[in-house]
Amino acid sequence: MNAAPLRDRLLTLRFELRRLFGMPGLIGVLMIGAAVLMCAEIASVEADTKEMQAPAHVVEAAQTRHAIGKHDAQVDAVALEALPELFPRFSQSADDIASIFEQARGSKLTLGSAEYQVSTDAGARFTRYQVMLPVKDQYSAIRHFLALVLNNVPNAALREIHVERPAVDGNILDARVRFELIYRSAQP
Known about the structure:
Elements lengths: L2 H51 L2 H13 L4 H10 L10 H14 L3 E2 L3 E5 L6 E12 L1 H14 L3 E9 L8 E12 L4
Antiparallel strand pairs: 1-3, 2-3, 3-5, 4-5
């Protein structure tokens, strides 16, 4: 096809669309089309990301479950066996605690002395490491700190938060925050 007729057809299409929708309508249609394309591409990228992050046997078990369309106890057993492998080993606990303190420094929080407690149930596949932190600052700073820790330490769970306001007219709060860090046990 020659370039001149193609250019003429595109120009005619542009004028017809402009006459039909007007310039704001034409821009709106183009923006809606771009948004639809972006949504489709984002969904594709998210699916690819989830597939890359999951261990191969968990993905295989999930694909088997979806292919069959039934709830299979054997597939659940495979996924349950793979669960402990998704958690870090206890040797990473020092790095996780350092990350929590780094998040506190980043939020400019005043921390008191922390209390630590390690517990492992008999025959359990997980070790729980509880960290109790006394925090003193404004509500927004404490909330920002909690969000940073939960976003940056994936094996951390917020177990408890207790907040008190020592002075009625003050905006500084005393809080006790308890995080539970979960690790896989060394035993099988």
